[in-house]
Design goal:
The structure holds two protein chains of two kinds.
Chain A lengths: L2 H16 L26 H13 L17 H14 L8 H13 L2 H12 L5 E4 L15 E4 L3 E12 L6 E7 L10 E7 L5 E6 L8 E12 L3 E2 L5 H17 L9 H9 L1 E2 L2 E2 L2 H29 L7 H24 L15 H9 L9 H12 L6
Parallel strand pairs in A: 1-4
Antiparallel strand pairs in A: 2-3, 3-7, 4-5, 5-8, 6-7, 9-10
Helix pairs in contact in A: 1-3, 4-5, 4-6, 6-9, 7-9, 8-9, 9-10, 9-11
Chain B lengths: L6 H17 L2 H9 L8 H9 L18 H14 L5 H15 L2 H12 L5 E4 L14 E5 L2 E8 L10 E7 L10 E7 L5 E5 L9 E11 L3 E2 L6 H36 L1 E2 L2 E2 L4 H30 L5 H26 L10 H13 L4 H11 L3
Parallel strand pairs in B: 1-4
Antiparallel strand pairs in B: 2-3, 3-7, 4-5, 5-8, 6-7, 9-10
Helix pairs in contact in B: 1-4, 4-7, 5-6, 5-7, 7-8, 7-9, 7-10, 8-9, 9-10, 9-11
Classes of the chains: A alpha+beta, B alpha+beta.
């Protein structure tokens, strides 16, 4: 047996012994996710146990170095852990922008001190991060951002406004893009800075969305003092860090295109019935089958691009392709879920519908092709950086 | 296993790419078509395939083969697709060789397969009987007769049927059309009495045939696999064929896309390359995405055939369905983006559209495979 097969066997055995049964059920709604942070509460004993066991094993971040709270696994081993978790239906023990976005940027651009200070609390789910990128006048044209960080000797003073800050009202710290040199061309005067959301002068205001929920906030900075050592990478070179992080954000958002929860075909069969094993609505059946084909192929494409990037056989801009396709796929999935649910999926308030979970989730997915760079921006990136078409 | 080619497979890719681009570019197909070649493929080129070791890709070395796997066969198919090369590689070296190897009749294999590897024996699979691929609907009758069987019925869309030395025939020896039980495979001499072969030149100028069987007497030892239980062997061969055609379609889609991308950069209107217009850029980027995602599914299907043959059916269906859809998109966009010149016979892009249409139908179109996936998931 190869080492990797042995590792797979051990992983499977450990997961089977340690993942509580209720943590192997598909998520019922977004409240079932555990995000960690100073104010986090576990929804169940199983959730707590699962989280603590995974933290203990370094498997909230399996591929990070052990000194930063990871398990130091190779990419191949990490794939095995994720694959076995998927096989057993294990939930993610910890959802975290720290893990998905800031961590990879710190591992690449952080100083040794910054890594030691910020990475272990991310791995242990102690600090919950949010991302301060978009502004009211800097959406697709993110580099035109105007939030100002003025150099006051030993510290910066930050003034400005961010928007679409996911969970800013629940986050402990923020990683933020600020303008440190207003005179420089727009990409060259930006810095990447970290600060505590409890700092005086920080305030947040949730934005009510069409889903009736408020996952995003407006975030205001009014003379916020931030010590100098909180800049990641070089001053005025934050755009480089931001772009690197965006590729991870794109990979994260593209993962929403992965199959998860109960298979669509089964949900539709329960809702609409079957005749001789065939879904009663044959038009919907064809649409679902086409979706299943694309979703499975997309899962393989994620795996393949990961392997290609590791072997240096892929253009890093390939993350735009995954983000584009994953977002569109998730929107398609929720359109099909709404079709499968029919009028039952339209209920907005009833207990029966878990307060309109299906409809609210469907509406939420419409942001997938806007957040993290719109689908149109991703297509621009592919055209320019991969296909090398002029003038994009 | 990483979802990329290993070093050995990458070497096969390099040699297949260079060989086919040099010896059998699209102009090779055009020449065969325009000269109304009786074979519809070049026997000289097929001999070179043998010298390259391609004919015996899937055969073990002791039978004169190269001892390689389905990933390597798929890599060669992709280059065949990129160049639209008419070749018995699919019917003989992939589907035919797989059927005989998996049956494992030693005496027969020792007699036939070294000839196959040397480029001296052509095979063709006769399965379809109607407009749409539906192997379980096989009705061609195998009636017990003398020391063997008498075959009666009609086959169509038999790729390379008019040039094959032997036909692998799916026949119904028991049960009724629609049942997977009761099928038997036969290896039939293409010149046997009672066989009437009509070459059907297809839209893509590739080979196919309609074949009528009128009480064709075959001995019991022509059976491949088990009498009445030929379905698993047939399905295995078809899955290999489906993955191989998916690889070919990937190559054809890529070929059409590469030409189109070149055209977007060269062709100027309104004083600038048409590829600088966002309307074109977004469509090109979308097409690129579809083709890339398909490539992942095709490679996974080929890897699964190599590593876990009996569990490959679903990923093969995903690959074939995706390849059909993305190649179709690629050739449609290709003709549209080329504008008027894309409609001319003189320009090569139309050949890609024609081949993609045939590849879509061969061994089940996207709808056939979507249905298979839905059934496997109980909906």
């Amino acid at each position: 047996m190869s080492d990797l097969e042995q590792f797979r066997k051990e992983t499977r055995a450990w997961l089977e012994a340690n993942c509580p049964p209720d943590m192997r059920l598909p998520l019922e709604d977004d409240d079932d996710r555990y995000w960690g942070g100073r104010n986090a509460k576990f929804k169940s004993e199983g959730q707590r146990l699962w989280f603590e066991r995974m933290v203990g094993r370094g498997w909230t971040v399996p591929e990070w170095p052990k000194e930063y709270g990871g398990a130091g696994l190779s990419r191949e081993e990490g794939k095995v852990v994720r694959g076995e978790m998927r096989r057993l239906g294990c939930r993610s023990p910890l959802d975290s922008f720290g893990i998905w976005m800031l961590g990879p940027a710190l591992l690449r651009y952080g100083t040794p001190e910054q890594k030691r200070e910020y990475l272990p609390p991310i791995a242990r789910g102690e600090i919950r991060w949010c991302q301060g990128y978009s502004e009211p006048n800097a959406g697709s044209d993110l580099a035109s951002l105007a939030t100002r960080a003025e150099d006051k000797g030993d510290h910066f003073v930050i003034n400005g406004q961010k928007i679409w800050t996911s969970y800013a009202d629940k986050a402990d710290w923020i990683f933020c893009l600020v303008r440190t040199d207003p005179a420089a061309p727009k990409h060259l005067g930006i810095s990447f800075i970290l600060f505590d959301m409890k700092s005086p002068g920080v305030s947040t205001k949730p934005i009510l969305l069409i889903s009736g929920k408020s996952p995003f906030c407006e975030t205001f900075f009014d003379d916020v003092r931030v010590p100098k050592g909180r800049i990641v990478g070089e001053i005025n070179k934050g755009w480089e860090v931001a772009k690197y992080l965006l590729t991870h954000e794109r990979e994260m958002i593209s993962a929403i295109g992965l199959p998860g929860g109960r298979p669509l075909g089964q949900i539709a069969a329960d809702s609409l019935g079957t005749e001789a094993g065939i879904l009663a609505d044959t038009c919907l059946r064809a649409d679902i089958a086409r979706f299943d084909i694309d979703a499975y192929a997309f899962q393989l494409a994620l795996e393949r691009t990961g392997d290609q990037l590791k072997a240096k056989q892929a253009n890093p801009a390939i993350s735009s392709m995954l983000k584009y396709y994953g977002a569109e796929l998730n929107k398609r999935r929720h359109e099909l879920l709404m079709s499968a649910g029919g009028s039952q999926a339209l209920e907005w308030e009833s207990e029966r519908s878990r307060h309109g979970e299906a409809a609210r989730s469907w509406l939420r997915t419409k942001a997938n092709s806007i957040e993290g760079g719109t689908s149109e921006v991703q297509l621009n990136v592919i055209a320019k950086r991969i296909l090398e078409l002029a003038g994009a | 296993m990483p979802l990329i080619l290993n070093e050995e497979q990458a070497l096969v890719l390099d040699s297949a790419r260079a060989f086919l681009a040099d010896r059998a570019p699209v102009s090779h197909l055009r020449k065969l078509r325009d000269s109304r070649d009786a074979d519809g493929f070049s026997r000289a080129l097929w001999k070179q395939f043998a010298e390259m070791g391609f004919c015996g890709t899937l055969l073990p070395e002791e039978l004169g083969g190269s001892g390689l796997g389905y990933v390597e066969a798929g890599v060669i198919m992709e280059e065949i697709g990129r160049n639209l090369t008419p070749s018995p590689f699919l019917s003989t070296a992939v589907v035919g060789a797989t059927t005989l190897m998996r049956d494992g009749n030693k005496a027969r294999n020792q007699e036939l397969l070294p000839k196959l590897a040397a480029g001296d024996l052509l095979l063709a699979l006769a399965v379809d009987e109607h407009a749409k691929h539906a192997p379980s609907a096989t009705a061609l009758k195998a009636a017990r007769s003398g020391n063997g069987f008498a075959l009666s019925g009609d086959k169509c869309f038999v790729v390379d049927g008019h040039v094959a030395d032997f036909l692998i025939v799916a026949a119904r020896s028991a049960g009724s059309p629609g049942e997977t039980d009761g099928l038997t495979l036969f290896l039939v001499d293409a010149k046997a009495k009672g066989i009437d072969t009509e070459r059907t030149v297809m839209v893509d100028a590739h080979n196919a045939a309609r074949i009528k069987f009128d009480r064709v007497q075959v001995d019991a030892d022509t059976v491949i696999g088990e009498v009445d239980h030929g379905w698993p062997l047939l399905e295995g061969a078809l899955n290999v064929g489906r993955a191989a055609v998916a690889a070919e379609l990937t190559g054809a889609g890529q070929g059409a896309f590469e030409r189109t991308l070149g055209y977007l950069k060269d062709r100027k209107q309104f004083g600038q390359p048409i590829g600088s217009f966002q309307a074109m850029q977004h469509r090109a980027a979308h097409l690129f995405t579809e083709l890339e995602i398909t490539q992942a599914a095709v490679l996974k299907a080929l890897q699964t055939l190599d590593g876990d043959f009996d569990r490959a059916a679903m990923v093969v269906s995903v690959a074939k369905a995706r390849a059909g859809m993305s190649a179709t998109l690629a050739v449609q966009e290709a003709v549209q983006m080329h504008g008027g010149i894309g409609m001319t016979d003189e320009f090569d892009i139309g050949f890609f559209m024609k081949r993609a249409r045939v590849g879509q139908e061969l061994f089940g179109d996207a709808g056939f495979h979507a249905d298979r996936i839905a059934r496997s998931q109980n909906y």
